[in-house]
Amino acid sequence: MLFSSVGPCTQGVYLRLFRTIPEAASAGPSRSAWPIAIRYRAEAGRIVPMRNHAWAFDPDWWSSAYELGDGSIIARAPIPVPLWLPRHTREPREG
Fold first, then answer.
1. pTM confidence score
2. Which residues pair with 73 in a beta bridge?
């Protein structure tokens, strides 16, 4: 599972993906993280649907991707909407 700091309706040509909810929530002004049922296959340089969500979309779909030095991933968008899951909102901490 990878996460985005923007929702499926605001994807650009490329999309920055994160491995955790806190990383994605910290990267965007909305402090939200949208889970996407995909995984990164570094050896192939692509993102692919997770097996347990492949029924929701063509299991042969893939998009090119590469990893940045900070561990985030840049993928060619758009990622099909059926692979997006409900977003997580990170509440501001008091103190």
1. 0.86
2. 17, 67
